[in-house]
UniProtKB/TrEMBL annotation:
Presence of keyword Hydrolase: yes
GO BP: any one term: epigenetic regulation of gene expression
Cofactor: Zn(2+)
Organism: Linnemannia hyalina
Keywords: Hydrolase, Metal-binding, Zinc
Pfam families reported for this sequence: Hist_deacetyl
GO molecular function: histone deacetylase activity; hydrolase activity; metal ion binding
Protein's UniProt name: Histone deacetylase domain-containing protein
Amino acid sequence: MVPTRMKVFTSTLCTTMHTPAYEFLSGAETHYYESPDRRDVILKYLESQGDAFEVTERTEDFGAGPIERVHKQDFIDYLKTAYEEWIEEGGHPNGVLPGTIPHYKVARLGKLKASNCLAKSGEYCFDMSAVITKDTFKAAWNAAQVTLTATKDLVRAADEFEQSVEAGTVTRESPPGLYALVRPPGHHAQSDICGGYCYLNNLAIAAQWLIDQPDLKSKADGGPKRIAILDIDFHHGNGTQEIFYTVANPLYTSLHSVDDYPYFTGSDLEKGEGEGLGFNINVPLAQATTNDDYVETLDKLIQDHVIPFKPDYILVSLGVDTYKDDPIAGFLVTSEGYPRIGNSIRKIGVPTLFVQEGGYCIEKLGLNVGGILLGFMGKTGVPQ
């Protein structure tokens, strides 16, 4: 039987580690929006929803292998040692932030790599929000392991779902869903660069792990399992796009704001390259996008691209910075819109893992994340 509750994978380490004091936005020093409070308020809301959610802190350690399949070794090594090197070289103890970022117009003859952390901070980071503290690598590692643990359970839940469908005890209208409540988030992290609060790309690591499992075969063609990624964060997932831009599996799809952070990616002209041509789908949206606009566009994306791909699993980059009052983003989407978004994803009829990304309106964060998850479970009433 398919569980009536959604399993939530998380860890207290998501709260106790990686706590930068500040960041820089629009030239000003400000408090760190990607704060540990985010995990706490989401968890509090989910726990208030009776028996709808089952929270577990069971985390397996999958080691470095799955991370190394997605991120380059020199970048991983940098994240491990950046803070210690930074302090040794006189950097501020709040954390590593780049002072100089290589510009594409600044040509360097030869291939000399940066030799000190003050330079590496710009080589391996593209903005002023990905502060590296003494615990950042441990926190990012933990987030990846929690996500992988949830991904392994997705395989189990999907197998049980198929058996139940074949037995006639459930229909494909009730697919299993799981949720990885993790921080720091991941979808801005590229194969060898961090930014946008992201260091290791949790969802990309999970997708590649599923593809790499030799015993998991796609129902469509008997090859590796087919993964469709739905990125519903307000900001384009430049990291996930870059990692999978030249491959046909997974399919990457993204709904995001036009002409907003990270500014230089996310065009609908970016369709993939080589074997990946046609498997990268960007849908930029106007900042005046309403609930109806968003759901209508999401449904069309699903019908035109996701369902024809015949995915075995759906992985959702779950960002609710689409909310109208988000302090650093926001469409005109209201809390009433999120159950509708979850319901649209449910109707795909495929086992789904939600992985937490953005969302910074602390007052409504739990309500909005919970709305998507409850909507996926078929509970489409106005969230409370």
